[in-house]
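Exercise 3.2. Students should predict the tertiary structure of the chain below and write it as structure tokens, then compare their answer with the key that follows.

Predict this chain's 3D structure.
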Amino acid sequence: MRIGSGWLMRVLLGIDDTDNLESRGTGYRARQLGLRLAGEGLAQVRGISRHQLFVHPDIRYTSHNSALCLDLTWGGRPLSELAELCRSFLRAESAPGSDAAFCIAPFDEIPDDVVTYGKRAKNTVLNQDMARELARRTDIHLEGVTGDEGGVIGALACVGLRKGGHDGRFVWVAGVRELTGVATVAYLLGSTGIDIIRTPDDEILAADARVLVDPWPRPVLLDDKAVLLIEKIMEGAHGDHDWKIVPKEIIKQY
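Answer key:
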């Protein structure tokens, strides 16, 4: 990986295992890290996605065994600076007892082997040696920071899954957490990071269709797009809108 050289590029940053049972989760820390990167003018955050990994008795995890991936437009500085910022952030912000790690990879340089590894992490027990060997072989920056560094497994996996473009749901895209009440499809597509709004069976809505956006929308990752899944409200059961976000049980299937 071209750590140490710098130009404007799309970069994936995976983090995992930053929490404990009493602390806030890795999703929160991913958003805080994104805020810092954007606030310091180092990167534009395109989106932050959550990827569900295998739940099995042989795998240590805090609550759900999910990892988070930040999709960045990196602002042209050496990637070694991103690695140093991530390292210091996770050392300072990870919860006591965590096994935090991070992974950095230019989007266009992530090989199919890493995508395959990410898919395996959804249904197979993997270990640190597998993750570290794959990172060495594919020249990807993978680094443990706290504890036994077990987060390297998920940090690499979520980068592979995000590159695959068809897994997980977003915990952040621009503008979604500020939404409340009812909004038109045109507004949502024009003023947030949502790329597509459709039903689970692929029906596309008219621009003036009105959608209830409470609770805040959680787009899913499909074909490298942030896709908001909505459903029709039963006739007579609404006021000034005809559509609502699909239940969380459906979103969790992605």
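Discussion points: Residues 1-6 have pLDDT under 50 and may be disordered. The radius of gyration is 19 Å.
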